Amino acid sequence: MKNNDVLFCRKAVVNQLSETIAYYILHPSSVTKGQDSDFLSALFVDVNLTEITQQKTIFFESNLDELSSLPLQSNINMVVFLNGAEISEADFDALSDFRLQGYQLGIINPDPNNYSAALLGTFSHALFALDCLSMEQTITLVEDPLIASKNIWVNKIEKEAQFTQLQQVLPNAHFSGNFINRITSVKGKRILAYKAILIDLLVALNDRESSPRILADYIECDPTLTYRIIKLTHTARYRSQFNVSNAQRAIEIIGIRDLIKWVGLVMLSSVSGKPDCLFSMAVSRACFCQSLSAALFPKLEGAFLVGLFSYLPYFLDEELPTLLKELPLDDNIKSALLVRKGNLGGILKIVEAYEAGRWENIPFDQLVLKELSKESLKELYIESLKDAREMGTL
To answer: Where do the HDOD domain residues begin and end (predicted)?
Structure first.
């Protein structure tokens, strides 16, 4: 992938000595707003945050509904700030549960008169924004005993006089704003989100004790992937008569063996900046490999993935050996992809030769022994094109 993608925007958060101690993470296209869960979820799996943020604490804004879909990152010190105007006593149990899970929570512009001590106790940080509050209001609120014990962060500092006054009044606080550091774009290499999910699924599938519930947990890391997997259960391919509402039930209907195939499809279709025909070609090859495998070796598994993943370098702009090192695939699949060995490798060679019209490279005499004529091979190819078109609509 290109190395100049804008991954996110950030502002430095400094201490009294103007030393950067944290980064405020912002969406690149909406730098003044709170973040949505899709952006934040993708951020954690698409980017090496530990490396980019130099292992400093990261601050970002969210809300309770979005927080439930965010992956907890044990290797990243992060604080999630929630809008105080949207918090009420009814949220106490949910906030307490998030704290027990290990989340660090902050509250934005809190007025201690509006909350109980117990509710405020679920927050370890408090953020005050000077575009919403005056300096006098901020200092008064920070001096309240229920707020003073928290880690204080003052944002939207626009003038030197503001910063100087805050340094004196709140020596242990954190500070940010355009006067200190303007918003900067962070560019780098984006790791495909679905690739990380696929790796987790492959590892889980190699564990005999993995259940549909465990696999569903990985699927549900991404709302779009969850939607498309559920949508799949309503196609003619599976003919589900049930109203499927979660990933676990969808996996039970689809079957664990087919799950990786569909996640792989979604992964490639999610890559931006590639022509639509490339995805169609990859799916057609995968379907052709699967059909040919079923005709020649009915019990052989993995042909679809071999066909699909043979296109990985064109989608991800990396060499296939490098890409396969990161994927815990069966050795037969890797051997087929890298050196065209084994039955799967033989199938891939035939399919590639057929696609290129290199008839001299197709062992028709051996195929006849398997009761597969030239006409039968043509029919398999045409059928694979039809299957690919159907898959392309999911």
So the answer is: 191-375
Q: Where are the domains of the chain?
A: 5-188, 192-270, 275-394
**Nearest CA among 166, 159, 84, 85 for reference residue 127:** 84
Cα separation, 328 vs 199, whole angstroms: 7
Q: 285: which 2 tokens?
A: 């090859």
Give the Cα separation of 144 and 83 in Å (integer): 19
| CA gap 354, 291 in Å, rounded | 14
Residues 129, 156 contacting (CB under 8 angstroms): yes
Task: State pLDDT tens for residues 206-237.
Answer: 666 778 888 888 777 766 677 777 777 766 66
- Domain spanning 5-188: CATH superfamily: EAL domain (3.20.20.450)
- In sequence order, the β-bridge partners of residue 24 are 11, 59
Of residues 310, 379, 372, the one with CA closest to residue 339:
310
Q: Are 221 and 71 in contact (CB under 8 A)?
A: yes
First-residue to last-residue Cα distance in the chain: 25
CA distance 316 to 278: 12
Query: What is the helix (H) or strand (E) element at residue 253, kind and residue range?
Result: helix 247-254
Residues 393, 388: Cα–Cα separation, whole Å: 9
- Residue with the larger pLDDT of the pair 45 and 237: 237
Going 267 to 273 to 279 to 280, the CA torsion angle's sign is positive
User: Which DSSP symbol is given to 282?
Assistant: H
Which residue type does 12 have? A
pTM for this predicted structure: 0.53
